[in-house]
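Structure tokens please, single chain.
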Amino acid sequence: MGDIIDEVKLFRTWSTPFALRIVWALQLKGVQYQTIYEDLSNKSDALLLYNPIHKKVPVLLHNSKPISESLVILEYIDETWTQQPHLLPQHPYDRAIARFWIKFGENEVLPAVWDAFTKAAGKEQEEAYSRSIEKLELLDEELKGKKLFGGEEIGMVDIALGWLSNLVSVFEEITGLKFIDEHTMPRLSAWKAALNEIPVVKENWPDYDKLLTKFTVLRETYLSKEPQK
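Here you go.
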């Protein structure tokens, strides 16, 4: 399926790391696409049409056919545009292991870090932070002997966990918590630096100061909803 005859559109916002997964994957594959930025406070009719269930981004529109959910989209991209680089390993066992770590990142790491980020300073945040460190240490251990989760080349696990390589720094600056420490998690810290040197990653991060402002406001919104104690 050639890029020239394909019509590919990506519905996203400027800040969501989930849409960045799709940006990285499309650019790694050399797929030409059109970006459509959404304002989630005033969602377009097109977004509501193409993702009527969740009404969220990202949505990939390929020849008028919509696909939603970033991890689903990543697999679709890898299976549709089969040229290298392959995002998932070719061997079934290696693919299964990659999917395990992708699921672990999505279901264990992301909620734990987010919980620590959105809690007020105190016992609940300390407990959430401790849980997040336990999860991150497992990722550090998995990187033993590897530059990236995909080995020497970026793969789908790296893309799925890519938010850690930039957004965690934003969370650290806002909360004063250290999620990825170069002394206690040297492999994960080195992975973070290596991923940020890959051109498609490095060139597509949103402005750091804008992210800092956005997530500061977002955290304050979460804190304002916490019951008074």
